[in-house]
Design goal:
Layout lengths: L2 H37 L3 E8 L3 E7 L4 H4 L4 E9 L3 E10 L4 E10 L4 E10 L2 E10 L7 E9 L11 E8 L4 E8 L6 E2 L1 E7 L2 E11 L4 E4 L3 E3 L8 E2 L5 E13 L2 H7 L6 E7 L1
Antiparallel strand pairs: 1-8, 2-7, 3-6, 3-8, 4-5, 4-7, 9-18, 10-17, 11-17, 12-16, 12-18, 13-14, 13-15, 13-17
């Protein structure tokens, strides 16, 4: 074997060793990232291989209502693997057919994680629809994985105690307004959140009226499934006396619930305050 052949063989061995080392490093990196996500309590909801052009794909979560009963998510984390992906927009479709759209327009680089705030606690997700543009190069197609970040529950203690301030049974069908009376006797609060029981409700607007008559309009356009809560809503000036909370909402009838319970359920909206 000539010197040239020996040199070529050594070069091939070096390339192979480099490739193996690169693969091993990538595997260690993926394991470390998986351990980090598990440590943060993230749950894998689904994944989808994506193409090289502007396209649409759907990740189907394929879980039952029973599976969701003990699960609430406040953030979805989108991870690109194998290539960069330019995420343009997202659409979440829930088990009852209601849909929410999120304009994203962001590049997710290979291995990066893109969090999407769900603007409150969300559950009962059926489909995650994506509009994206993949970036073609020698690395090939990308895979998008979606993880759900569970909603945090505030534990007991003087700084993290949620108090139920009042509840109101809301109209069964259509768009309506209601008022939940709180009163000065309940004390001062830094934030509030809304909880829904009995049926689904789409919240359209929220006005907090303080003890001195000042009004605070809070943008709170949320669709809440039965048992869900909004995110904490900070009060203007903090530590405020609340006289009442005025709601503009639209009730949503879920046919699946009617079949399961053999009756129409009326929604109740409750206000909880953080002292």
């Amino acid at each position: 074997m000539g010197l040239r052949s020996v040199a070529m063989a050594l070069a091939a061995v070096a390339v192979l060793a480099g490739a193996l080392a690169s693969d091993a490093a990538a595997q260690r990196r993926d394991r470390d990232r998986d351990e980090d996500r598990r440590g943060r309590g993230l749950e894998l909801l689904g994944e989808q291989r994506v193409g090289f052009r502007v396209d649409r794909d759907v990740i189907r979560v394929n879980q039952s209502e029973e599976w969701y009963r003990s699960r609430r998510y406040r953030t979805l984390h989108f991870v690109a693997d194998g290539n960069d992906v330019h995420m343009i927009s997202l659409r979440l479709v829930y088990l009852n057919g209601y849909a929410e759209e999120f304009r994203v327009d962001r590049l997710i680089r290979d291995g990066e994680e893109m969090p999407v705030d769900l603007r409150g606690e969300r559950s009962y997700i059926r489909d995650i629809e994506m509009v994206y543009r993949s970036r073609p190069d020698f690395r090939g197609q990308a895979t998008i994985r979606v993880y759900g970040e569970p909603a945090r529950r505030f534990g007991p203690g003087p700084d993290r105690e949620w108090v139920e301030l009042g509840c109101q049974q809301v109209s069964l069908i259509g768009k309506d307004r209601d008022t939940i009376r709180v009163g000065l006797r309940e004390g001062r609060f830094r934030a509030i959140r809304l909880a829904v029981r009995g049926a689904d409700v789409e919240l359209l607007d929220l006005n907090v009226v303080y003890g001195n008559g000042e009004r605070h309009d809070i943008a709170v356009k949320h669709f809440l499934r039965e048992g869900e809560r909004t995110r904490p809503l900070d009060l203007r000036g903090r530590d405020r006396h609340i006289d009442r909370v005025e709601l503009l909402y639209r009730s949503r009838i879920n046919p699946a619930d009617i079949v399961a319970r053999q009756k129409l359920s009326v929604a109740t909206v409750c206000v909880e305050g953080l002292q």
